[in-house]
């Protein structure tokens, strides 16, 4: 079944729309005295959306005191403090500028000891469950259809785990590193089933991703196109610009 899409004339407007939905959810939960559990993504795609959330915090008093976050993924191995880490990314673009309690921030850690990763990944799943599950998961999409770092071939039953990055993903993300050799070969990512358990999912995409968006929205549901499984989620929306929606 086709995934519902909201199409905007540019990424800024799409980003504002998503930030507004997130802010509304946070405030609704606040009014009920409840926590709001957000699943967060990195990459260039959500940067404007985070900037808008920061603006809503600074200019309109949106508070993140009741917010708990779980990030999708992290390179492995990589020091938390490295400029390229998703830990650094999230602090640079969002966490350093809002009033979230640092204890409520969860990001897979590129410094986990290799022997303990399995247990740490299980613990990550447990932490999500203990928080009551993810209320709203934000996603980007890789050119090969990956969500989080679930590369093509990832099982729809997969959970948080260590994975091998596709070469195309390493090439696409090389700009963040000094050169391709410096891009880690592994990553820790929430699994497809972890993502699918979220109560609401918003996938954003801008620019030159029309072909993979068309496959994901209306192509066959296949593990070769990880984002295509989102067709089977009952509350998922794609937020697109005119470029990414061109082949729908
Ligand atoms: C990375 C992230 C994904 C992200 C994708 C797209 O590989 N792990 O979560 O969606 O890149 O990146 P961009 O938003 O820069 O196009």
UniProtKB/TrEMBL annotation:
<feature type="domain" description="Glucosamine/galactosamine-6-phosphate isomerase">
    <location>
        <begin position="11"/>
        <end position="236"/>
    </location>
</feature>
<protein>
    <recommendedName>
        <fullName>Glucosamine-6-phosphate deaminase</fullName>
    </recommendedName>
</protein>
């Amino acid at each position: 079944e086709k995934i519902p899409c909201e199409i905007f004339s540019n990424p800024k407007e799409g980003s504002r729309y998503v930030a507004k939905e997130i802010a509304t959810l946070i405030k609704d939960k606040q009014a009920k005295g409840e926590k709001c559990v957000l699943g967060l993504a990195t990459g260039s795609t959500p940067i404007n959306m985070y900037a808008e959330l920061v603006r809503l915090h600074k200019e309109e008093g949106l508070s993140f005191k009741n917010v708990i976050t779980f990030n999708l993924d992290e390179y492995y191995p990589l020091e938390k403090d490295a400029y390229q880490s998703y830990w650094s990314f999230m602090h640079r673009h969002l966490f350093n500028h809002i009033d979230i309690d640092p204890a409520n921030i969860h990001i897979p850690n590129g410094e986990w000891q290799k022997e303990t990763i399995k247990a740490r990944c299980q613990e990550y799943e447990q932490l999500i469950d203990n928080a009551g599950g993810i209320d709203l998961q934000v996603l980007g999409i890789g050119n090969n259809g990956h969500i989080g770092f679930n590369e093509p071939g990832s099982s729809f039953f997969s959970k948080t785990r260590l994975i091998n990055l596709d070469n195309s993903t390493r090439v696409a993300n090389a700009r963040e590193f000094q050169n391709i050799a410096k891009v880690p070969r592994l990553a820790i990512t929430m699994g497809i089933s972890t993502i699918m358990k979220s109560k609401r999912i918003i996938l954003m995409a801008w620019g030159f991703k029309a072909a993979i968006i068309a496959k994901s929205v209306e192509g066959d549901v296949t593990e070769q196109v990880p984002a295509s499984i989102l067709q089977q989620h009952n509350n998922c929306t794609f937020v697109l610009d005119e470029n990414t929606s061109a082949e729908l």
